[in-house]
Design brief:
Shape: globular
Distance between the termini: 8 Å
Structural class: mainly alpha
Length: 295
């Protein structure tokens, strides 16, 4: 029971760290539609060598094994998530993008884990998933977004980001049996960094890096390298579906930071959403404890 609860805590900490991503993007400055995409690509470019260095320092084996190509699929999923999510933001708006990408993940992960990994879906976990999705929808969906001519395309890209993130979680869960979390994360982000290099348009990239390099370093080191290390470590101990519900702490963190740093107001629906979200995470912890095997 203790290892599973510890794993859930690690996933929750990773989700809280991910919640700072939107704030970092806002501080870097996303006046151009190309800037969010550059920021998304820089996450992997900065994180990949940090993870590889950490794996080497801890003597984690990071040699690529052709017999175990799961990290290739995970890396491509991570690259697809960055492209879809950060491309959707200027088209559909931050609120709609986060709503579709983040809130669709628990449903998609639970279904994919059931189909591909054979994970059972208990009543407690299903109830936690429902509470978490409803809470995140209220929390993120409270902010208005302009439905422009490209809104439908943006929504499609946001759903693609949710699917890519869900596939990443399921593939990573299945691959952890054959390697260490830090080594797998290093390999995954190395693949993602190489796949994302074509989106780094030179002029925009140089201007963005010069203006916001400390924030980009933070983005690659903390809510990417460190957070995904925590996530893969925790995912080794808990079912992928339970990890997805705990991951819904990400939009709550983003909302709190918006209140504190940018003076955003929290309406009644968002407050109710935060309460439902916390209830879903607590119910997930309780369901995980009940289903944990006896030591």
């Amino acid at each position: 029971m203790v290892p599973m609860l510890l794993g859930l805590l690690l996933v929750a900490l990773a989700a809280v760290s991910w919640g700072t991503t939107g704030t970092t993007l806002e501080l870097v400055g996303a006046g151009s539609a190309a800037v969010p995409l550059v920021v998304g690509a820089m996450r992997a470019v900065v994180a990949a060598p940090l993870l590889a260095g950490g794996a080497r320092l801890t003597r984690t084996r990071t040699r690529i094994r052709p017999r175990r190509p799961a990290f290739l699929a995970a890396g491509l999923c991570m690259a697809a998530y960055q492209v879809c999510f950060f491309s959707a933001v200027p088209l559909a708006g931050v609120a709609a993008t986060a709503l579709l990408a983040i809130c669709s993940a628990p449903v998609l992960v639970t279904l994919l884990a059931r189909l591909l990994l054979g994970e059972p879906l208990s009543r407690g976990r299903a109830a936690a998933m429902a509470l978490g999705v409803a809470g995140a929808a209220l929390l993120v969906g409270g902010a208005p977004s302009d439905a422009g001519p490209h809104f439908v395309l943006g929504c499609g890209l946001a759903l693609g980001a949710g699917l890519a993130n869900s596939l990443y979680a399921v593939v990573t869960k299945g691959a952890l049996a054959g390697g260490t979390p830090l080594g797998l994360s290093a390999q995954t982000f190395a693949v993602a960094a190489v796949a994302l290099l074509p989106v780094l348009e030179p002029a925009t990239t140089v201007a963005t890096v010069v203006r916001g390099w400390p924030l980009l370093l933070y983005l690659g080191a903390v809510p990417t390298a460190a957070a995904y290390c925590l996530y893969t470590t925790g995912l080794r101990r808990v079912p992928a579906g339970a990890a997805a519900v705990a991951g819904l702490l990400e939009p709550m963190t983003a909302t709190v930071l918006g209140l504190l740093l940018f003076g955003e107001r929290l309406g009644a629906p968002q407050a109710a959403g935060a309460a439902l979200l916390l209830a879903g995470v607590c119910l997930t912890a309780a369901a995980t404890a009940r289903t944990a095997p006896a030591p």
